[in-house]
Write a structure and sequence with these properties.
single chain, alpha/beta, 3-stranded antiparallel sheet, 17 strands, globular
């Protein structure tokens, strides 16, 4: 019999959080909360929900309420049930996975503010033509390079060296994006049930990777004041964590930068405890100020406790799906062996395009930063004008504003905003167990005029919430 993924009643109750905040009848509010978990990826497809009586007992409501909520979800296409077999999460017809990882109606007219990735630079066309010309030189080989094209590994190593981290090609593994880099590290270095230290909030797809590896995530808070590392340093030094995952440079979603003293303290603790730090540098090249940045974590690492992952998606173009891992040559060899069993290596043409773009970095990156600076300032101005109750810190780089709302209505606002043609990633996508309902991540990767218009629409949706007696939508914003 095929194994079915399940979520227990206590775990589902924690994810639902304050599910009554959606207003209306309890069964409608419960159905809306479960639907929101499915649509924003916090509850995977094909997961068996707890029995009605168990969830009713956990939520301290009547079984009739849960039965009615499940029936409404089935009618809307978000549950599929078989008699005697329970209810599994699903999606109605016409839904798709958006670029942000959120399930949403298949409507390309939406302004997608769930995706923090810019379009390709103008240099992409010339880089692609160069790569096509070079491809013939590889036509006599089998085309499989589990560790990556040697020329691209050298180019990536040279960029690390230029940033003050002496690196050779043997210390580089080319991956299918930074996401695969993290996945390979987790496959090799962790086991199901282990604890891993991760920032809170953090990148949603990283949290998904941890869940897929069946790891137990312990949080280190990232606030307006920075990383709250002091409480976790003793645990790292004591060897509690084999792996700690961090985004130290223009953190996603907050935009914060980990200060050098805290970088050094984390590395020292990892050395004492025998653990490893995975530093995700996906945003590292997107500084938008002239202020000097802290050195890369690997530059402070005398004992090789830091594994660096990065990629092309934010600085250049996500469509290439080219990333990398920097680690010791011995660890790179082991990771390459794991990679060979996953997909045997990346596409040669994509890697050639990536190398050609890296060779154009001196012109591509300054132009990219200037455009992002303009778009960031436009978004900041629009939020200040149209959402005056919101709080945020203007980031020095990266691609996102982490906006604190005046009330914990992020999920409800994301649902209401779709009626105005805007797709949002609410704060709970970046945390666990229903946290961060007061927050939205607003990326500034789209043209300035679209960002301003999107904020106007978000403000209108926010006004709709305030217009209701409960301050929340009484019915679901999207009904299949």
């Amino acid at each position: 019999m095929e194994a079915v993924a399940r979520v227990g009643a206590p775990a589902l109750a924690r994810r639902l959080g304050d599910w009554r905040c959606t207003g209306g009848s309890d069964y409608v509010a419960l159905a809306a909360a479960v639907r929101g978990l499915i649509r924003d990826g916090r509850l995977a497809l094909g997961v068996r929900l707890p029995a009605e009586r168990l969830l009713a007992a956990e939520l301290a409501i009547s079984r009739t309420t849960v039965t009615a909520a499940y029936r409404l979800l089935r009618d809307q296409g978000y549950l599929r049930s078989r008699r005697g077999a329970g209810s599994d999460t699903a999606l109605p017809e016409g839904q798709r996975l958006s670029t942000s990882g959120l399930w949403a109606p298949d409507d390309e007219a939406l302004i997608d503010l769930g995706c923090a990735a810019p379009p390709p630079p103008a240099e992409l066309t010339a880089a692609a033509r160069q790569a096509a010309d070079e491809l013939a030189g590889y036509a006599t080989s089998h085309g499989y390079y589990p560790a990556g094209l040697p020329e691209l590994r050298s180019a990536i190593a040279d960029r690390f060296t230029a940033r003050g981290v002496p690196t050779g090609p043997a210390e580089i593994l080319v991956t299918s994006g930074a996401q695969q880099g993290l996945d390979l590290v987790l496959r090799l270095l962790t086991a199901p049930g282990e604890r891993i230290l991760v920032e809170s909030p953090s990148y949603p797809n990283a949290l998904t990777a941890l869940a897929a590896a069946r790891l137990r995530a312990d949080p280190v808070a990232v606030t307006d004041e920075g990383w709250d590392v002091e409480p976790v340093l003793p645990a790292i030094a004591a060897g509690r964590y084999r792996v700690t995952y961090l985004i130290p440079d223009f953190h996603n979603p907050t935009g914060a930068v980990l200060p050098e003293p805290q970088r050094a303290a984390l590395i020292a603790a990892a050395y004492r405890g025998g653990g490893l730090l995975v530093a995700d540098e996906t945003f590292a090249e997107l500084s938008l100020t002239d202020r000097p940045a802290p050195p890369p974590m690997a530059a402070l690492d005398r004992h090789r406790r830091v594994i660096t992952v990065g990629g092309m998606s934010k600085s250049y173009w996500g469509g290439l799906r080219v990333g990398w891992i920097r680690a010791t040559p011995a660890l790179i060899q082991r990771l390459a062996a794991v990679r060979a069993g996953v997909d045997m290596g990346g596409a040669v043409l994509d890697q050639l395009v990536a190398r050609a773009l890296l060779a154009r970095a001196a012109t591509t990156l300054p132009a990219r930063r200037e455009l992002l600076r303009t778009q960031r300032d436009a978004l900041v101005g629009a939020v200040r004008e149209h959402l005056p109750g919101a709080r945020f810190r203007v980031p020095d780089g990266g691609l996102c504003l982490w906006v604190e709302l005046d009330e914990p209505v992020a999920s409800a606002l994301a649902s209401a905003a779709e009626a105005y043609g805007v797709r949002l990633a609410p704060g709970p996508r970046f945390g666990t167990e229903g946290t961060f309902e007061r927050y939205l991540r607003l990326p500034f990767a789209r043209p300035a005029n679209e960002l301003v218009e999107a904020v106007r629409r978000i403000a209108a949706a926010r006004g709709d919430l305030d217009a209701l007696p409960s301050g929340r939508p009484a019915t679901p914003a999207v009904v299949a």
